[in-house]
Amino acid sequence: ITRALLNYRTTVKPMLEAAYQQVVEQIQEISPDVVVYHPKLVTAPVAAHAVGAIAVVVELFPTLTPTAAFPALGLPHGLPGFLNRASFRMIQLALASAAKPAKTLAKKLGVLRHHPDLTLCPVSQALVPQPADWPSHALVTGAWTSPTLGTIDAELHDFLASGPVVYAGFGSMKDTRGAPRARAIVEAARLVGFKTLLVTGWGGLEPSSDHVDAPDVMVRSTVPHSEVLPAVAVAIHHGGAGTTHAMIRSGIPSVIMPFVADQPWWAGRLKILGLGPGPLSKSVTNPNTLKRALVKAIECGEAVRVASEFMALEDGLGRALSIIEDAEAGVQELRPA
Q1: pTM (2 decimals)?
Q2: What mean pLDDT comes out for the span 248-267?
C-alpha cells in the first residue's frame, strides 16, 4: 500500500494534473461545439461549459451512473437492487476528492456546472440493456465498432478449417504463469477433442517448444479477430470489454480468466445472462478444471448465438453520433444568432 501511495504521489498525480491542464488549454484554444471525454478528465466538462460546448462523458463500461440493475466494479453480480445502487454511491464517495480540480476550475472560470450534459456507455445492449432507472441523459448506445481489415496466412487458415479449435489469448495481460497456463489450456483442449490456437500477445501465454511442433497446436503473437473468431469453437481469454464484445459478436462462447479492472465484472455479467460459465481464476493450471469450464462454455452456445444476432443489428457509433447531434441541435437553438 505504501509503495502504491508513493507511486501515485510521484507519478500518477503529476500526470493527471498535467492532463487536467492540457485538456483545458486545448478546449479553450479550439472552442469546439462538443467535447467527448474520459471520466478521468474531470476538468473537461468545466472547460466545455466555459466555451458553450456540450460535455459528453464516455463510460467505457458502466462505472459511475448508479442503477439497481447491476453492481459497480468490484462487487459480484446477483445482489439485491438496493445494494447495487449503494455500490455506485460508494464509488462516488471514493472519487469525490478527484472532483476537486473541476470545482476549483469552475470557480475560477465562473462556470456553474462541472457535470456532463450526456453520459454515453458504448457497450452492447445484448450485454447491458439500458437500465430503467438511469436518468434520461445517460444512455447505453451499443458498442462502438469500425470495420477491421485483416488477413491470415494459409497455414493458419488450414489449421482453423481442419477441426474444432480453442482460441486462447490474453491480450496485454502478463504474469508469471504464462508457461503453465499454456500447457493447461492445450491439455484441456485435447481432453475435449479440440485443437488449440495460442495467441501469445504480451506474454499471458508462453508456449513450449513442444507446442510449437505439435500438429494440434498453432502459435501466433497476434491475429485479426474478424478473420479468426468466426472459425473457432470456443475461446479462453482475459475478459476485457473489447475482447468480450468481439467473442459474443462472433457467436463464440468463452471462458474468462480475469486479471484486473473490469474483467471480473464482464465474466460475472456473462454468467448472469447465461452467456458464460463465470470467472475462472487466472491461477488455474489444472487441465481438468479448464476442461470443465470449456464444456460449460460450449453449453452456452445457443444463448451466445442469439446475443450475436442482436449485436449484428446494433449501430452503436451511429446512435451515439445521432444522440450528440440532437443534443447539439437543441443547444444551437438556444444560442443567439
Answers
A1: 0.89
A2: 95
